[in-house]
Write the structure tokens for this entry.
Amino acid sequence: MKKVLALLAVACVANTGLFAEEKPECLAEGDSVAAFYVTDVTGPAAGEKLCYRCRYGNRPVVSIFAREMNEEVAALVKEIDGVVGGNKEKKMAAFVVLLSDQPEAQNDKLKAVAEKQQIKETPLTTFDGAAGPAEYKIAKEADITVMMWVDGKVKVNETLKKDQLSKDKIATLKKSTDKILN
């Protein structure tokens, strides 16, 4: 019986190792953020392909990666936009990255959201590819990923399904900006 239990334990450990190799880990606190290119839809460089990670350098940054622009994501963006506007002296920045295999088809929707929500400080952008930038290891299961960094190092990385983005969660994410502002 002890041999059977020992074999089962070994099998479980071996399978856990295989699963861990198949599922890449998301960026963790302290990891560096890499450069990647987006197409700006509503920001100061509207119509251009650029690297906001590069442009914002070591500033405190919130980056919201979303697979769909819905009301909940728009509400989150509006809240973060308000935080950015209130922290200009700290040079805080933010940008939204809509992940899509058809990014050009999203432009009108992003422009409408920016106008309706009066988003002024946070460029809405698109990334060509639903998986997102490879270096960012966006979880396949996540509908929304909120990353916050300062000095090029991740301080917050939250992955959410769309039904998890409640008013309370938005308030919690807004409060999390303290981690990059202090």
Remarks:
- The chain has six helices and seven strands.
- The domain at 26-181 is CATH 3.40.30.10 (Glutaredoxin).
